[in-house]
């Protein structure tokens, strides 16, 4: 079980101390490429969440009142420590999650960038002066909520830890992080680096486990704001739980993202971007290009090119840095397989990959898969598969591809491949998605807002917009006149 980059045993990390779970129960996290155990990890309960929330509440006043310059410097120090340890962190991430180690290195560079980017905002969280007339001074201040619950998914565990924790800390909040049960390790190591950087011990806490601590955290009356990334089903449950305590939520709930390819597009570029967009991290990406809507004049060439690209992928354990690693868990592997099988039964044709393709022994591998002969109303064209499965749809001159692109419940990302700038702008305006890419994919950065329309979520992460999830606005009205005026509510 021992790996030099990991601990054999991970209790919870609460108030800066390794803390055994209240029930004294541990589970194993395993290597998805082999099924071999990596480490024992605490199985949290509601009692563990109570302890962590109490630690975060105790740490909040001092962290909130820390000089913004100092707060920013400490958060920036986290970025420096992540960069200094990125190879070790990437190895842990690759082992626990399954992704190629080079992709994990990129994730950790991104994690460092989040802390670096938001550190610069710490002393710039300004309010506004409102011009209401000569008899009153009116201004706003932006204040932290308090305790931030961070529920982190399993597809980018280290990177998304940073995406939420960094703006929460910079805004003066404290955090309780609940990592996914299949990928808990990076959260512990990143929290340790936060403490090493001078973030107070109780300001970043990690409680591991299955859904039990997550449910306790989202329903906890000591939590002041919730950030959740995950499935639509679980996101709805988070909203229901938060409603009882009237706690604000930021939700990123996935997508079924279209890439519209017109006949005037550079087809080689379009295929390259779409392949990257659906096969990176074995398709376990919320913003992946799940659907390619390709004009009938170029669909045959597009399919020939994308299937050749798919067939060329090398699969293997992530730590060996192949082109693509395994799916993260046995349960998810079976779910993706069932989607492909039902698509075949419904009439789809497997142009590349599929369930019978050769894969490495012992792991949860599915080859990059391309499905054609798909109707837009089929389950495979509507549901988020979250695997390396591309659906190819065809449209003609008399069809409206944007209407088809929008005809799903999700609206996270979308892409347009064309050399007609007018068409690109018109389509970008019509696409019901929080992020639109033109002639590329994954165009968002740490600096740009990211989030969904429709069932893809609420609120925005990344960029300065993310700070709205961690700051509430207070208005202050100061009367400069004497006597009782005639001000009334609703005026």
User: Rg, please?
Assistant: 24 Å
Biggest beta sheet summary? 7 strands, mixed
Outline, from the CA principal axes? Answer: globular
Approximate strand percentage: 15-25%
Q: Which structural class do you get from the secondary structure elements?
A: alpha/beta
DSSP strand tally: 23
Percent in helix: 25-40%
Average pLDDT, rounded to a whole number, is 96
Number of helices: 14
Weakly predicted, low-confidence segments:
none
In spatial order, strands of the major sheet run 15-16-17-14-13-19-20
Please sum up the structure shown.
The chain has 491 residues and is of the alpha/beta class. Helix content is 36%, strand content 21%. The strands form 6 sheets. A 7-stranded mixed beta sheet has the order 15-16-17-14-13-19-20, with helices on both faces. Strands 10-9-8-11-12-22 form a 6-stranded mixed beta sheet, with helices on both faces. Strands 1-5-4 form a 3-stranded mixed beta sheet, with no helix packed on it.
Account of the 3D structure:
This protein is of the alpha/beta class and 491 residues long. The chain is 36% helix and 21% strand. The chain has helices spanning 46-64, 68-84, 86-97, 101-119, 157-170, 185-196, 211-218, 232-245, 267-279, 299-311, 330-345, 379-382, 401-406, 421-430; strands spanning 9-10, 12-14, 17-19, 26-30, 37-42, 129-130, 136-144, 147-151, 174-178, 204-206, 225-229, 249-252, 257-261, 289-295, 349-352, 369-372, 389-395, 410-411, 413-417, 435-438, 453-454, 457-458, 471-479. The strands form 6 sheets. Strands 15-16-17-14-13-19-20 form a 7-stranded mixed beta sheet, with helices on both faces. The chain is globular. The model has no long low-confidence stretch (mean pLDDT 96).
């Amino acid at each position: 079980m021992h790996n030099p980059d990991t601990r054999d045993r991970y209790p919870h990390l609460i108030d800066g101390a390794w803390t055994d779970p209240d029930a004294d129960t541990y589970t194993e996290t395993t290597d998805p490429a082999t099924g071999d155990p990596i480490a024992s990890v605490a199985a949290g309960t509601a009692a563990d969440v109570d302890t962590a929330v109490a630690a975060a509440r105790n740490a909040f006043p001092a962290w909130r009142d820390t000089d913004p310059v100092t707060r920013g410097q400490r958060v920036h120090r986290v970025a420096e420590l992540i960069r200094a340890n990125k190879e070790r962190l990437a190895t842990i991430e690759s082992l626990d999650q399954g992704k190629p180690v080079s992709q994990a290195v990129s994730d950790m560079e991104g994690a460092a960038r989040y802390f670096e980017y938001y550190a610069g905002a710490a002393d710039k969280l300004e309010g506004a002066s409102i011009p209401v007339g000569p008899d009153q001074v009116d201004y706003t201040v932006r204040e932290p909520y308090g305790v931030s619950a961070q529920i982190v998914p399993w597809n980018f565990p280290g990177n998304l830890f940073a995406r939420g924790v960094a703006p929460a800390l910079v805004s003066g909040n404290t955090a309780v992080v609940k990592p996914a049960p299949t990928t808990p390790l990076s959260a512990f190591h990143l929290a340790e680096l936060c403490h090493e950087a001078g973030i107070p011990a109780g300001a970043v806490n990690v409680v591991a486990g299955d859904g039990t601590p997550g449910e306790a955290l989202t329903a906890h009356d000591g939590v002041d704001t919730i950030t959740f990334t995950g499935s639509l089903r679980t996101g709805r449950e988070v909203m229901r739980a938060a409603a009882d305590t009237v706690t604000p939520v930021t939700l990123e709930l996935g997508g079924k993202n279209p890439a519209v390819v017109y006949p005037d597009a550079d087809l080689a570029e379009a295929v390259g971007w779409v392949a990257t967009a659906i096969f990176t991290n074995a398709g376990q990406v919320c913003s992946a290009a799940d659907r390619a809507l390709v004009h009938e004049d170029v669909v045959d060439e597009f399919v020939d090119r994308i299937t050749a690209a798919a067939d060329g992928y090398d699969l293997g354990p992530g730590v060996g840095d192949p082109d693509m690693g395994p799916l993260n868990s046995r349960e998810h592997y079976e779910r993706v397989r069932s989607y492909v099988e039902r698509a075949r039964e419904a009439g789809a044709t497997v142009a590349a990959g599929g369930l019978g393709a050769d894969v490495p022994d012992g792991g949860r591998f599915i080859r990059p898969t391309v499905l054609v002969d798909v109707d837009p109303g089929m389950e495979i064209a509507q549901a988020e598969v979250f695997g390396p499965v591309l659906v190819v749809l065809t449209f003609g001159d008399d069809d409206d591809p944007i209407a088809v692109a929008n005809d799903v419940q999700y609206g996270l990302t979308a892409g347009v491949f064309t050399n007609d700038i007018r068409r690109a702008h018109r389509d970008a305006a019509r696409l019901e998605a929080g992020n639109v890419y033109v002639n590329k994919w994954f165009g968002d950065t740490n600096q740009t807002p990211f989030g969904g329309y429709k069932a893809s979520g609420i609120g925005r992460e990344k960029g300065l917009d993310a700070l709205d999830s961690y700051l509430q606005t207070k208005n202050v009205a100061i009367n400069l006149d004497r006597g009782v005026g005639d001000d009334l509510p609703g005026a």
